[in-house]
Amino acid sequence: MRTAAIDRATTETNITLTLALEGAGRYQIDTGCGFLDHMLELFARHGRFDLTLRCAGDTKVDYHHTVEDVGICLGRAFAKALGDGRGIARYGNFLLPMDETLVLCAVDLSGRAALGWQLRLPAARVGDFDTELAREFWLGFVRCCPSAVHFVQLSGENTHHILEAAFKGAGRALAQAVAIEPGLENEVPSTKGVL
């Protein structure tokens, strides 16, 4: 089992997180931000990752620090659980429909950080969640689990649906990328010999 536990405390947030890559999609999530909880529950369920996460953040200010720091911790957890990446597929992609919305997520666990964010979000807020924070979450993730993660919106009019498709698609794409390839368990998937 590839697992990781992350504890991170700053003056803005206090986060504890556990992750199992070979999971059943079980989750216990409480970030203090209901929309972020919802997105991470979808991510865990559709990626089949087991995820526990607690965050006490300065939500009296807004959700920015909470969302960014949770992205950082989730990225660190993936990086820790993957180790040197030996045996992984490395690449994954998923085209996810969500009602009128269609979003592609593609992942390369390359060891280099890049985020492609081609989502057009019609609404600035979903409930009390600033939708621009979704990009901050994934920036935190790719910086701490160095990877190229791309989101491309092919259609969509409802902001909730677009973000839901992105998080579900990311779960599915990452599940493919972290999967161990039979017969290649001892190989690093790079001509360089390292990721």
Number of strands: 10
Helix-strand sequence: EEEHEHEEEEEHEH
* Residue share in helix: 25-40%
Strand order of the largest sheet: 1-2-4-3
Q: What share of the residues does DSSP label as strand, in percent? A: 25-35%
Instruction: Give the overall form.
Output: globular
Q: What are the segments in which pLDDT stays under 50 over at least 5 consecutive residues?
A: none
Q: Main sheet, how many strands, which sense, barrel?
A: 4 strands, mixed
> Which structural class do the helices and strands define?
alpha+beta
Gyration radius over CA? 16 Å
- The whole-number mean of residue pLDDT values reads 97
Helical run tally: 4
Report the end-to-end length measured between terminal Cα atoms: 21 Å
